[in-house]
Amino acid sequence: MEINVRGIEDGQPIPEEFAFGVYNEQDHMSFGPNKNPEVTWDKVPEGTKSFVVMMFDPDVPSIADDANQEGKVVSKDIPRVDFFHWLLVDLPASSSRVPEGVDSDGVIPKGKEPGPGPVGIRGVNNFTQFLAGNPDMAGTYGGYDGPCPPWNDEIIHHYHYEVHALDVESLGLSGEFDGAAVREAMAGHVLASARVTGTYTLNPDLR
């Protein structure tokens, strides 16, 4: 199975058009275009009945106290955890593409609705937790929201775009399901997977 994410080459920086946050010299960060990239896939195994599309960042600090704080850095030695940016499930077996901008085109304060979307069913991404303390932005974030790592992080973040071919038509998920729920539901049903990894940073010393 093969995946292509238009505009993103494996191991290369992700273009700002796909980012939630872009570098801003005055304020460190400002909102980006936040478009979902086009994802296509082929060479699908026989018996495929549905697909899952996801994107996650495995480099998010497990302790975020110093994130985006003036005069501080997020140490490279802090243990890192997965942060889900995009969860689409139950894409039909006939599908082979998620068009650019169909699941996200701009930053939506308080988030997009989870549930049935333009393509597949949207899960809830981790901006839901990340922005919970911001009264202007707090809400439930469904679908795609792009990279926005701490601007004072000592490491460059990696973003895994993945497609999984499954042997079931539906994972049976509904409501505000998250990345852990998707992984649990997929267990034992994955026929094949493919991945492209892009990088991103808002730290001017690493750009």
TrEMBL record:
PANTHER family, sorted: PEBP (PHOSPHATIDYLETHANOLAMINE-BINDING PROTEIN) FAMILY PROTEIN (PTHR30289:SF1), UNCHARACTERIZED PROTEIN YBCL-RELATED (PTHR30289)
Region of interest (Disordered), residue spans: 99-119
Taxonomic lineage from the root: Bacteria, Pseudomonadati, Pseudomonadota, Gammaproteobacteria, Pseudomonadales
InterPro entries: PEBP (IPR008914), PEBP-like_sf (IPR036610), YbhB_YbcL/LppC-like (IPR005247)
Name of the protein in question: YbhB/YbcL family Raf kinase inhibitor-like protein
